[in-house]
Amino acid sequence: MRQNSDVLIVGSGVNSLATAVIMQRAGLRVSVFEQASEPGGAVKSGAYTTPGFTHDWAAMNLSLFAGSPFFQEFGDMLTEAGLEFVPAHHCFASSFADGRWLGIGSDAEANAAVIHAFANSDSETWRALSDEFPDQASHIFAILGSSFGFRAVAKNIWKLLRAKKLSGALDLGQFLASSPRAWLDETFTSPHVKSTLAAWGMHLDFAPDVAGGALFPYLEAMANQTFGMVIGKGGADTVTRALLKCIEAAGGTVTCDARVDRILIEQGRAVGVRLSDGSEHHAAKSVIANVAPKNLSSLIGETEPHYDKGLKNFRHAPGTMMVHLAMEDLPDWAASDQLRGYAYVHLAPSMDQMARCYQQAIAGLLPQEPVVVVGQPTTIDPSRAPAGKHTLWLQVRMVPGEILGDAGGEITALDWQTAAEPMAQRALDIVEAHAPGTRAKIIAQRIVTPAELEADNPNLVGGDQICGSHHLSQHFIYRPMRGRTDGTTPIKDLYHTGAAVWPGAGTGVGPGYLLGKKLTS
């Protein structure tokens, strides 16, 4: 066994890399081991279709990273290392079958005016929500950005009660427990406005009727309006590349094609890792595992009943299929040419359609009408394609990791290798209905199935891009399980991080930041 590091980290997702940066600043030697051929987990980019076109493998929106406490603390260093964002002032939109569309950008009055065309009362509601957002955000972000230790929880509750009194605190609690449909029906009248916002819940696993999901449509709408959206210049992997440069400059190492087969435990303490090639590496201080709970279980074996049961029972969200397209031009959206300027165009016509899609995927069925998220990164960052050309980033949500049938009664395949092409065509049919002629503009295509997403990154179990359901029974004090929100495990000096750990998924590296600060404080 070689003692070559103070800290060993399993997995190179951005949470791992953020933790490594924090720990190296504290003077610790860090080594990261990644089973894939390149680092970054879901935050990577490449010419997945044809040379000259850069696509984001999974994550595209970097707004959470840009607004994170980690970036506030290390932004200057990362910028010096090459990190560069491109702002999107036209953030997201929805196109509807009736020929109408609704888009939200960073101009609050313009947003209210667009909403006014659907319902005057909704535009007034929007203005009220916009006015209240700074106060609401201060409390919500305090909850989402803090640990769930007793002192942190008590401090947040005290501040909330002082600011909002008991009635206001209870109202916020009710909102945090509400489903998207419940909150949207209480707040807006226009089905178009409701659907435009509800689509954000489908980026996680909050279909319209899932309790606890109201927060995400609200936050995405208000935060995009207030702060705008950013993507990575040249690709989302600008984050990964900058983090790697910082780690290596401080003497750390990130080794790819290095699968960890076992976390080595001696007398109840994690002391190192064994790789698939048989080599063993020692950690003088700690081992950190950025892995899905079921995979952590296979690396450590049995510990204590409550913890082992929690790892085993951790639930994953439905999967996602990606379709990367190299394009001659952007889609010609039938509803309006203005849609060509938006970072995201959601094709999710109603809350009922989103609910059906989700339920079909949960039941193991290929949805008859999936939600399609059309990312248009080159409208914001032309450097990702040759002059005059474009890329499209399609997320097909929701789909089952394991196929049991087809809700549409057309696709007979029960394996993703065979089902991928017809399912991609179903998604492209939806795009074509909103933007006729899109297929004719395709230069090259790359389909990435849920099975491929998991093979590339085992944290994405069944193609679950958020590494675990965020439903209330598996969020807040229950992520990944009761008593382990801080990344501790029953094994001394072994810590758990990544999207499966509080505060959960996204590019904001919250789990990695909180753990890094905990271990260096």
Attribute tags:
alpha/beta; seven-stranded mixed beta sheet; Amino_oxidase; 521 residues; globular; FAD/NAD(P)-binding domain; oxidoreductase activity; 16 helices; FAD/NAD-bd_sf; Pyridine nucleotide-disulfide oxidoreductase domain-containing protein 2; single chain
Describe it for me?
The structure is a single chain. This protein is of the alpha/beta class. Among the domains are: 184 residues, 3-Layer(bba) Sandwich (FAD/NAD(P)-binding domain); 121 residues, no CATH class. Helices cover 38% and strands 20% of the residues. It is built from 16 helices and 20 strands. The radius of gyration is 22 Å and the shape is globular. The two termini are 29 Å apart. The mean pLDDT is 96.
Name the CATH superfamily classification of the domain at 7-41 and 69-83 and 235-314 and 467-520: FAD/NAD(P)-binding domain
Q: Any guess at the CATH architecture of the domain at 7-41 and 69-83 and 235-314 and 467-520?
A: 3-Layer(bba) Sandwich
Number of helices: 16
> Percent range for helical residues?
25-40%
Gross geometry: globular
CATH class of the domain at 7-41 and 69-83 and 235-314 and 467-520: Alpha Beta
| End-to-end separation | 29 Å
How many DSSP-defined strands?
Answer: 20
What does the main sheet amount to? 7 strands, mixed
Q: What fraction strand?
A: 15-25%
Subunit structure: Interacts with COX5B; this interaction may contribute to localize PYROXD2 to the inner face of the inner mitochondrial membrane.
Function: Probable oxidoreductase that may play a role as regulator of mitochondrial function.
Pfam family, one: Amino_oxidase
Domain Amine oxidase: 17-337
